[in-house]
């Protein structure tokens, strides 16, 4: 491996941008003890508007730049006041999910045509650069974009360091971050300091993404996605999320080493693989030290009211049983009839294709329910496991009957999921999410590019095999047949997941999630239980990948973007975390509704982003909370008709009492001896521990 001056210079250019972005992430973490996944897309919005101002409106660079930075700071303050402050006392993982939702909304805005500069003008002039000059160092020609990074990034970094070291506001921020209670006693407003930190982070995000955009041959919003954010997160992890000089130095080192690897090996994606190794090593060697920086108990998966089944005596009532069976069979009948309906062209082959993809997302939702809702393991790389299933099916599917292919693909996904879940043995919550997101990034850029999976042209083709040697899913088959096979898999998976929840395995997941120390004292292996949850979840996600492969037939790594993995988590939270029907509702809301009306993928960003914010702020139980509310009158009527039992005032609390029940208090007018319908362990997102 030869290291030249060119590698050092170009690596430093990349490392400086990662460093400024990583400092912004670390500042938010120091202030609030959570990872801000909206940090990158906050800067993307500013970069898009900056390009439009300079290219379309003719605003001079040095006039537009401070305006864009101020806009980034204002946007950061708006997010803190509108979202973070509303969830100030929530568990930190709730804030992580909220920032993912905000990130989806920001990405939606960034992709709107009215936000972007004229593409023809942008191609001709290129993205605006700070200096119209060139400099040759060691045989490499540095143009305006690279020179801007080399000059401006160190200046901004030193300015931030001086602000925190020498100004009273900087010292107040440090005091509020290190000991909020002591800071309050000293007269420092912790919340005001939090807003100021978000302003600074917004400025840094805008500054970074504006400079990064000059390095792209063609300005594309999609190219500014999770890859850059994960690099900054990797540097922040090396610095334990709190040591800013180490964070900046690690980012610089990542940029240089990444450049050396790229120049030494003629293979794409190795930089992402290197980053994944760095993140895994940082978590392995100092994961517990990093975890100690979180607030006690604030990494638990407590997104809101966990809606559980009705008490056994109520479920046994004939009217309640008929209601539940009617809902199940009615939903199944609708699913069977859906691709046959002429309404809005539902009977077309294009609609059948979209409906099949929705069923694939339902399978992913079931896997996330098992992993996140029951086992408490947060994964932001689940869609990469879907890709594992798709590419595996394309590679080995020739000649295998579908039932056998389902099993083989599922076990391959389970094995990969166990490897990805190994950090769960040592860490939980926030940083497990970071490691799984890093896996999603490296899967797209490196794993799915390997010839053993995708062939020499990085694409894969799925030959639809025979089903039970009777139904040939070949070229002549219509997409509707693939839909019905996917529906069969969804039904089988739903029954299997339901049985897991009621088994000893499901109870062990809940026990380890709620109190792993108590579970270990009862003889359960916390590490083994967590890895088992990853295995079962990976099995289902990989089977979902088979569904996607059967539907798409031809696909490549671009179909498994890591940004979609963020949607998978939001999807199950919107539906109702921990609920099997909630997983189905969430997938239907986020992906099914756009499929019904042929809306673009942009709508999915909006439904997931706005949907999760509504859930976190106003609807702790997700869409299933609305379902419970709708069924309340029917159940109440059934109980009143039950002879021989005194009718309780209200079996299901009214709407205004749902949050009270979630807080553990009895609703007004309800008898305290009646078993609660909502939440065996429920805490609204806005309540502190």
List the helices and strands and how they pair.
Layout: H1 5-32, H2 39-55, H3 61-84, H4 92-110, H5 119-125, E1 135-137, E2 140-142, H6 144-166, H7 168-178, H8 180-185, H9 190-213, H10 226-238, H11 244-264, H12 270-291, H13 312-315, H14 318-337, H15 349-374, H16 382-396, H17 402-420, H18 430-445, H19 451-454, E3 459-461, E4 466-467, E5 471-472, H20 479-502, H21 504-514, H22 516-521, H23 526-552, E6 554-556, H24 562-575, H25 580-596, H26 601-618, H27 623-641, H28 658-662
Antiparallel strand pairs: 1-2, 3-6, 4-5
Number of strands: 6
Strand fraction: under 5%
The major sheet is characterized as:
2 strands, antiparallel
- Radius of gyration from the alpha-carbon trace, in angstroms: 26 Å
Fraction in helix: 55-70%
The side-by-side strand order for the widest beta sheet comes to 1-2
| Helix-strand makeup class | mainly alpha
The shape is globular
Termini, distance in Å? 52 Å
Please count the helical segments.
Answer: 28
Mean of residue pLDDT values: 81
Uncertain ranges: 647-689
Please sum up the structure shown.
This protein has 689 residues and is mostly helical.
Structural commentary:
By secondary structure, the chain is an all-alpha fold. 67% of the residues lie in helices and 2% in strands. The chain is built from 28 helices and six strands. It has helices at 5-32, 39-55, 61-84, 92-110, 119-125, 144-166, 168-178, 180-185, 190-213, 226-238, 244-264, 270-291, 312-315, 318-337, 349-374, 382-396, 402-420, 430-445, 451-454, 479-502, 504-514, 516-521, 526-552, 562-575, 580-596, 601-618, 623-641, 658-662; strands at 135-137, 140-142, 459-461, 466-467, 471-472, 554-556. It is globular, with a radius of gyration of 26 Å.
